[in-house]
Design a protein that fits this description.
Layout (H helix, E strand, L loop, with lengths): L1 E6 L9 E2 L11 H12 L7 E4 L3 H9 L6 E2 L14 E2 L8 H6 L12 H15 L6 E6 L1 H10 L18 E5 L1
Parallel strand pairs: 1-6, 3-4, 3-6
Antiparallel strand pairs: 1-7, 2-5
Length: about 180
């Protein structure tokens, strides 16, 4: 099965904000970014099914691209950053921040998730998806979710996973 993953467009929060699962607004450039994404996505259509994170930024892009009623799944949400949600990274005074920077692929954020938990829920979603009789599906989601999907499909390894972060409005394809 071919899975087309689409990252949401830019968001309207100050640069360096730890927004995670917060339902933040899209940037003023949404329409221009979304149009480019829609044009790039056209080469993959049609889809047997379309899924999205329930967060507004993913659903809004899905709707713009012609899919106003995607199947929503909480497992497609971005990493929950716990106590750090909506704080600027540079202003977080938590002594655990440096430890997390040093090992963010394994340590959870205070009161939040760690990357292994995000990977577990994304992998569970993809495992379930493999049981469906689809040829091609689209998933509108988040950067962390796309990293997990890339790891799941062995497009890259954990060591350099974040070097493969898809840009806002970008597309990643995997086979499952």
């Amino acid at each position: 099965m071919e899975v087309i993953l689409i990252r949401h467009t830019s968001v309207d929060v100050p640069k360096g904000t730890c927004y995670g699962q917060s339902d933040v607004p899209v940037a003023a450039t949404f329409e221009q970014e979304a149009e480019a994404t829609k044009q790039n996505l056209a080469q993959y259509e049609p889809f047997d099914q379309v899924y999205a994170s329930p967060l507004t930024r993913a659903r809004k892009l899905a709707a713009y691209c012609g899919y106003p009623q995607p199947r929503l799944d909480n497992r497609l949400k971005e990493m929950y950053m716990g106590e750090w949600e909506m704080q600027l990274y540079d202003e977080i005074k938590d002594v655990r921040l440096q430890d997390w920077y040093n090992d963010y692929m394994h340590l959870p954020t205070p009161g939040g998730e760690g990357f292994p938990q995000v990977y577990e829920r994304v992998a569970a979603f993809l495992d379930e998806l493999k049981t469906k009789d689809y040829r091609r599906v689209a998933i509108f989601a988040h950067g962390g979710v796309l990293i997990c999907a890339g790891l799941y499909a062995r497009l890259f390894g954990e060591k350099d996973a974040w070097d493969h972060l898809v840009p806002f409005g970008g597309i990643e394809t995997i086979e499952i």
